[in-house]
Amino acid sequence: MMPCREFVETITTEPVGALSWSRRLALGSHRLICHRCRAFEANNRALDNLLQVHRQRLEEPAPPADEPLKTRVNRP
Ligand SMILES: [Zn+2]
Questions:
Q1: How confident is the model over 45-61, as pLDDT tens digits?
Q2: CB-based contact 27:7 (threshold 8 Å)
Q3: 20 to 30 Å CA-CA from 22: which of 43, 57, 70, 72?
Q4: Rounded distance from Cα 34 to ligand 1 centre (Å)
Q5: Each residue's pLDDT tens digit, 15-44
């Protein structure tokens, strides 16, 4: 079985689409057996989604400086 360290390193550094079928099979087998890595992957995915939302917010143009501070801070 693939070691946990290799599983974590692979899912955090390599896009799934770039992996060979044998590598994806090894990941899937490990995921099936190891509850810790399943939990890590779920947390990692949630963190990625959270960062994606904030990244989009940071890329939006800054509000005009003359807009009241309360309005700027409470933007959705
Ligand atoms: Zn594991």
A1: 999 999 998 888 888 87
A2: yes
A3: 43
A4: 5
A5: 888 999 999 999 999 999 999 999 999 999
Residue 40 buriedness (CB in 10 A; 0-12 / 13-18 / 19+): middle
Q: How far, in Å, is the centroid of ligand 1 from the Cα of 21?
A: 19
Q: How many CB atoms lie within 10 A of CB 3?
A: 11
List the end-to-end C-alpha distance of the chain, in Å, as a whole number: 46
Q: CA 2 to CA 26: how far, in whole Å?
A: 7
- 62/15 Cα distance (integer angstroms): 32
d(CA 65, CA 48): 31
- What is the distance in A from the centroid of ligand 1 to the CA of 63? 45
